[in-house]
Design a protein that fits this description.
The complex is a heterodimer of chains A (about 260) and B (about 325). With about 260 residues, chain A is mainly alpha-helical. Chain A contains 12 helices and no strands. In chain A, helix 3 (about 55-90) runs antiparallel to helix 11 (about 215-225) and helix 7 runs parallel beside helix 12 (about 230-260). Chain B has a domain at about 250-305: Alpha-Beta Plaits, CATH 3.30.70.1560. The radius of gyration of chain B is 24 Å and the shape is globular. Classes of the chains: A mainly alpha (about 260), B alpha/beta (about 325).
Chain lengths: ~260, ~325
């Protein structure tokens, strides 16, 4: 924990040197949000509901989507990119000579502070959506449970994305060059802008379990719009625990392979 | 013994393919591999406080050995023990007592002053504030870093950066140092500074150091003992002076003459100015040739020297090949 905070401090100091980045990032967040809003208004010019989701509810999805996207760009993607560049350039050796857990170490090294603007902008949209919501409550998570369900599923969803991304990044131990991974993820993540329920079954399953965008974006949105059931929340938490264990195993396997235990 | 290596072997499986587009395509599906013995049956040990030079041409297995000693690579077979630990288990107690410095790879934060990277190192090794500050200030003083640690690392010269890298690698006061080409690419003055520092650090803390370098001056200045490996095999382990005795088949005699003379009959003339002649003669004949020169020629001065250590090393590798 202290290590993560020190790294965070270092990165904050790093970023504060480049003030221009901050303004560019704010601009980017606003443009991305505006695009999302325009698309939503186009959709609702045609129809009143998309697969049972009303306009304020889809706004909530957009807000969560922006928030999780911010978390990804703030903490997940920079660390994963760093792992790959370290493996390519051989500086990964230094990771393994440190008396700290290697998985923890590689996961907290790089942060892009200004990407937090996306988290803030997304949170603002979420608040707006909740305030204007017409509250069609179908789920079992209600009242105080909504906030709990929202934060738990948001955290679990972000962890799932981290896990899947790290598992794929571990492939760099074998293949070395895997820059397309980032593109792949960014592209797929865009699908999370809408509730996964609107996609056909096979794609929905893939988006939920393979690339857990379904969990990361849709489940917290369900919490906000009163659709979440306790069993679904439990499923999300159970899934993330399982995924963490798998990630751990794959990571140790990758590190062992890197140090040539198999050769 | 701080380091014990017994019957150490490391074999790599490397992909192999013929040049050309067609071969590149077929290797996508059908990868051929070949085993390469990077290290073969190597034995040595290093005592506390010893500085050992690790010599060999590129690809001899030096870095592979250092990586096995620092726990990065698992040996294919054989035993490695450092400070009572098996390195490749990467136990926390072991990793906190050793350091690995690679001359061409950075770990300092590029955009920040080195002092900030030092703080990070402190968090990684969980150093107590008192011990950390004491060690940090000592390193800053010994390496003459006071004016540099507040500048962003990107503004430092290569040599300055290397000094800061070394300081960063020693903040946890390791008992064993593995240095892979720590002076690579540095100018002569900076190489000398770093050598002086390493000798100093070794004297102060009794740390054991294993060092590879392409610069023989580093080795001559720091290491009483050298280990030579070539194609993964240990060729020599002993005093640096014994290396030339064992491998230099020839000696050099420099003769200053009162008047010019042709000395071609005494040995191979390597260099000649009107009154100073440099001869190369075989080691066994040195005494006899010297005696004859003194008796038969108008010699005003005569010295017998071992050939430069670089030449010796080169002949070792030729002999080993």
């Amino acid at each position: 924990m202290r290590l993560a905070l020190t790294f965070l401090r270092i990165n904050v100091m790093n970023e504060l040197q480049y003030r221009a980045n901050f303004f560019l990032q704010v601009l980017e967040s606003v443009v991305a949000l505006a695009t999302g809003l325009i698309v939503l208004s186009l959709i609702f010019a045609q129809t009143d509901a998309l697969d049972g989701w009303t306009r304020p509810q889809l706004l909530a999805v957009l807000g969560v989507f922006t928030m999780v996207g911010g978390v990804i760009k703030f903490a997940i993607e920079p660390n994963m990119a760093r792992i790959m560049s370290d493996i390519r350039e051989g500086t990964f050796d230094y990771v393994l000579t440190k008396p700290v857990d290697s998985q923890l170490f590689v996961s907290v090294r790089q942060f892009r502070l200004w990407q937090l603007t996306d988290v803030i902008v997304g949170a603002a949209v979420v608040v707006w959506a909740v305030v204007t919501s017409d509250g069609s409550e179908q789920g079992s998570v209600t009242g105080g449970g909504v906030a709990l369900g929202f934060f738990v599923s948001l955290f679990a969803g972000s962890l799932m994305i981290y896990c899947v991304w790290l598992i794929l990044t571990t492939g760099a131990f074998w293949f070395v060059r895997m820059e397309m991974l980032e593109e792949l993820f960014t592209g797929l993540y865009r699908a999370g802008q809408y509730p996964v329920g609107i996609y056909p079954g096979w794609l929905r399953a893939a988006l939920t379990f393979l690339i857990p965008i379904g969990f990361a974006v849709t489940v917290p949105s369900e919490a906000l719009t009163g659709r979440l059931t306790w069993s679904r929340l439990a499923l999300a938490v159970g899934f993330v625990v399982l995924l963490m264990a798998v990630t751990r195993t794959v990571w140790s396997w990758g590190v062992r392979n890197y140090s040539g235990a198999s050769a | 013994m701080v380091i014990t290596v017994e019957q150490l072997n490391k074999t790599f499986e490397v992909p192999e393919r013929d040049p050309g587009l067609k071969a590149a395509f077929s290797s996508l599906f059908n990868r051929k591999t070949r085993s390469v013995e990077a290290v073969a049956d190597v034995n040595f040990s290093v005592a506390k406080g010893e500085i050992v030079g690790f010599l060999g041409p590129n690809g001899a297995g030096k870095t592979t050995t250092l990586k096995m000693l620092s726990g990065l690579l698992h040996p294919t077979s054989g035993r490695v023990e450092v400070l009572g630990h098996v390195p490749n288990k990467r136990e926390r107690e072991y990793l906190s007592r050793m350091t690995l410095v690679m001359g061409n790879r950075n770990q300092l934060q590029w955009d920040l002053p080195a002092l900030d990277s030092f703080e990070l190192t402190r968090a990684i090794y969980r150093l107590q504030e008192g011990a950390f500050l004491e060690q940090r200030d000592e390193l800053i003083e010994l390496l003459d870093l006071a004016d540099l640690v507040n500048k962003p690392v990107r503004q430092l010269s290569l040599g300055e950066r290397m000094k800061a890298e070394i300081a960063n690698s020693l903040l946890h006061r390791p008992a064993v140092l593995f240095l892979d080409e720590p002076t690579l690419g540095l100018d002569v003055t900076m190489q000398r500074r770093i050598r002086g520092f390493l000798a100093d650090y070794n004297a102060r803390h009794g740390a054991s150091i294993m060092l590879t370098s392409h610069y023989m001056a580093d080795i001559e200045a720091l290491c009483h003992r050298v280990i030579v490996i070539h194609e993964g095999q240990l060729l020599f382990d002993g005093a640096l002076s014994a290396l030339s005795q064992r491998f230099a088949a020839q000696k050099t005699i420099v003769v200053t003459l009162a008047e010019p003379a042709d000395l071609g009959a005494y040995g191979e003339v390597v260099d000649e100015s009107p009154t100073t002649v440099t001869l190369r003669v075989s080691r066994d004949d040195t005494a006899a040739v010297t005696g004859r020169l003194l008796a038969e020629q108008p010699v005003s001065d005569l010295t017998v020297v071992d050939p430069p250590i670089d030449d010796v090393i080169e002949s070792v590798f030729e002999a080993g090949a």
